[in-house]
Amino acid sequence: MPLTRTTEMFKKAYEGHYAVGAFNVNNMEIIQGIMEGAEATHSPVILQASEGARTYAGQDYIVGLTKIALTRCPDIPVALHLDHGSTFEVCKACIDGGFSSVMIDGSKYPFDENAALTKKVVEYAHAHGAVVEAELGRLAGVEDHVNVAEKDAIFTDPDQAAEFVELTHCDSLAIAIGTSHGAYKFKGDPYLDFDRLEKVGRLLPGYPIVLHGASTVIPEFVEKCNRFGGEVNGAKGVPEEMLRKAASMAVCKINIDTDIRLALTSSIRESLHEHPETFDPRMYLKAGREAVKQMVMHKITAVLGSDGQA
Question: Is position 203 within any domain?
Fold first, then answer.
């Protein structure tokens, strides 16, 4: 099966009141774990690489590993997506290199500049068979190349969202309703602005909305990481029931990165602690890969609702 355009994925997700998981990838074991989890649950999946992942692993490696995954799991719809592309040039390089979807993140710019940049990427992507995600509003937090102070976070204005989509013809839109990047999402009680999401859904009927910064920061992995030498203290994610509610509304894509990192790292720490004699990386990376698989299966069945939708 060739790479899938997210257009088809999101149409089914919107009509079925579920969301597709977009899991960040950085190496072979993460891709394997995600794909094994998607295959076990028969779920569509989005593999997404940030600019940091492209720098670390190399774009050709990411594309090559994804192509292998397609042959190993031929019944699973897979999209390859650029997460948080900062420039037209980066988006173009990914489209030319084989990505089926790109995100142009112009959220740091004023509305008009964001719209102009997004429209430029959309025109190039559509001419080359790819689709585009854009962002309006800013999420707080730190993750990869995203670093936004809490005071600079801006919730998305629903009326502006509708205008932005009309101006740019972007295929999906990431909005800010209270999620944030990284492992430390809330200082107080978790809160998502569902009224704002509902209004966006009314103004853009049938249109796919994206949630960034939507890891739940699963306590099991935080505790395990800390038990075996980590120092991830005070981490707090988005409650699963909130994400499931968002997935039943207009949200068709939920980004998950921090939970991948925690699953992998905590399991590697545990493996090295319990087997200090081990210096074969295949042993501890195997444990990490299995943890990623189990975490992805949990997300698909308990949070996204995409199991059985491949």
Answer: yes
Q: Which domain holds residue 42?
A: 6-304
Q: What is the pLDDT of residue 189?
A: 72
pLDDT in tens, 106-118: 999 999 999 999 9
Domain with 275 in it: what CATH number?
3.20.20.70
Q: How far is CA 228 from the centre of its chain?
A: 27
Q: How many domains would you assign to the chain? A: 1
* pTM for the structure as a whole: 0.92
Query: In 139-159, which positions are buried (b, 16+ CB within 10 angstroms) versus exposed (e)?
Result: bbbebbebebeeeebeebbbe
Q: Is 141 a member of any domain? A: yes
6-31 mean pLDDT = 97
Domain contains 295: yes
Q: How far apart are CA 215 and CA 185, in angstroms?
A: 9
Q: Is 309 within the bounds of a domain?
A: no
Question: Which token pair is 95?
Answer: 């489209």
Please give the positions annotated as active site.
83
Q: Which pLDDT belongs to residue 139?
A: 67
How high is the pLDDT of residue 188? 62
